[in-house]
Amino acid sequence: MSQLLKAPPKFLPSEWKYVNHVLFRSAEAEQESSERLTAECKRLIEETEKSVRRMQQEAKNQLEQRIKDVKFWRQELEQKLHEMVQEIELLLTVKNRVERSLASCSEPLQVTLDCLNERQKRVAIDLVDDEVEKELLKEKDVIEGVMTLLQRTLEQVTEQIRLSRSAKYYLEKDLRDKFQAERIDDFCSLLSSTTESADYPSGVGQNTDIGLAVTPEEWETFSDVNITQAEKERSSSSSLRALVENLLVQTAADMRRQHETTGSALALRIQETRNAKAELEDQLFKLLEEIASQEQNLDALKRAVADKELPLKVAQMRLQTRSQRPRVELCNDHAHTRLLSEVQQLTDHISRLKDGLSESEMAIRALTRSQLLLEEEIQIKSNSLYIDEVICTQLRQPITIHDF
After folding, report:
1. Main localisation, per the record (predicted)?
2. Does residue 103 surpass a pLDDT of 70?
3. What gap in Å lies between CA 187 and CA 200, rounded to an integer?
4. Cβ of 373: how many Cβ atoms within 10 Å?
5. What domain range includes position 289?
6. CA quadruple 139, 142, 146, 152: dihedral positive or negative?
7. Mean of the per-residue pLDDT values for the chain?
8. Is 382 within a domain?
9. How far apart are CA 8 and CA 23, in angstroms?
10. Chain-centre distance for alpha carbon 310
């Protein structure tokens, strides 16, 4: 058993010293290496700390500059949006005025059409294409032209409102993005290494590549385009409003002028018809007097004929009685000649009186026909006066052309 267990080898003193020296030198080398590593790490820590602070400060400066840029464009967008909102409100007011002006044309047009229809009820010679008729037709054309122009203008205003609202939409959208970007950058500028992780908003680091293809120049151009487009629409809207202002004034003036012209023509025509009716009535009065006089003349002629018939019968009776004288006494004496002359003259008188009687009757019939014609014409004039003076005047009286 003792033979199986061998004693450990023995080393020489020189070997012992060498091994100790090697271990010492190895430990010393490791210590120096560790010290150099510690110094390098300390330098690296200080360097990285300075670099981090510098980078954070530079990032903060860039963020603050970015915030200033965003704020500048946001203010520009807010100013332009404010102007667009005001312009749209003004344009909506103008649109309302155009709509009211267009609606106000319906009543005058209907009155004009009613007057034209009513004046078609004039009869006989009074159904004339007079100045009133011409002015009413012209008034109809003026009102219809104004309505067409206002309708086209209303469509233009509506389209301009749509374009202005579109520009306003893009301004608002850009402004919302700018506001959000400013809020995010402002938050980022306040972040530091001491910020608690709980203070970071959710979703940080997500979708970081969205929009990174946009260069700063393109970013500025985007807002500049929105502002330029908005300014263009605001300028167009302002020009359109000025045009509409002039249009409303001009159309109202045209309608008012034509309304007054037609009214003057109607008043003149009423006066002419009234004068003609008065002349006809005066002539009818004289004609009735003449008929009465002629009837008196007819009665006088009838009495004259009746008065002449008895003397004629007496003369004829004398001639007939004297024709019974016997023989030589049946002489053509002066008495016989006188009786013959008397019968002849009385017959002639009666014949002429009857001719006068016939002419008087014919004159009365002619005067009666004239009376009927005059009365009919007076009735025609009365009808025309009623249409023009009562119906048309009352229809037109409430009409007032307003400025909207």
Report:
1. cytoplasm
2. yes
3. 9
4. 13
5. 283-323+332-396
6. positive
7. 85
8. yes
9. 22
10. 91
